[in-house]
Amino acid sequence: MNEDQPVVQTDAERKMKRRMRLIGIGIAVIVVLVLLGFVGMIALGIINQVRDIVIILLATESLIIGGVTLFLLYQIIMLITLIREELIPLIQSAQETVNSARGTTVYVGRKIVAPSVRAATTVARLQTMARVLFKGK
Questions:
Q1: CA 11, 13, 14, 15 torsion-angle sign
Q2: Cβ(79)–Cβ(73) under 8 Å?
Q3: Quick one: residue 45, left, alpha or beta (phi over 0 = left, psi -120 to 50 = alpha)?
Q4: How far apart are CA 123 and CA 126, in angstroms?
């Protein structure tokens, strides 16, 4: 880029900067309102009551989070049980299928492929022998 040329912003960059400015202003307004709320509660002398209500709300939230955690633990236990009861037999069935396929390939190899290869090599030997013997004639 040349230093003499001004930096041109795209429309998307301008929108992003505007959004970031609005987000910053929103956060600043929220912080100021919270601080003014605390100052107002201290001035009215109700900070102790608000503290008690917040403690009760936090305790209730802790109980709810504990209950949800226990429910998730129960769901994990059920998932492990399901895997143990359903997936392991499925894997065993797949192993039996693989063993059956392995047995089939061994059988086909011994009964069909090996005799075919022997016959083909015998024909090739006979052809080579005939070429060598009757080459001159």
A1: positive
A2: no
A3: left
A4: 5
DSSP-derived secondary structure letter, 43: H
Rounded average pLDDT over 98-116: 88
pLDDT in tens, 1-27: 556 666 778 888 999 999 999 999 999
* Separation of CA 97 from chain center: 29
Give pLDDT tens digits for 31-58.
Answer: 999 999 889 888 888 888 888 999 999 9
Contacts of 9 (CB under 8 A, 6+ apart): 17
Contact between 42 and 33 (Cβ < 8 Å)? no
3-state helix, strand, coil in the chain (%, to 5): 90, 0, 10
Distance CA 18, CA 55 (A): 39
- In angstroms, rounded to a whole number, what is the distance separating the alpha carbons of residues 46 and 55? 14
Give the domain ranges of the chain: 14-45, 48-131
Q: What are phi and psi of 7, to 5 degrees?
A: -80, 125
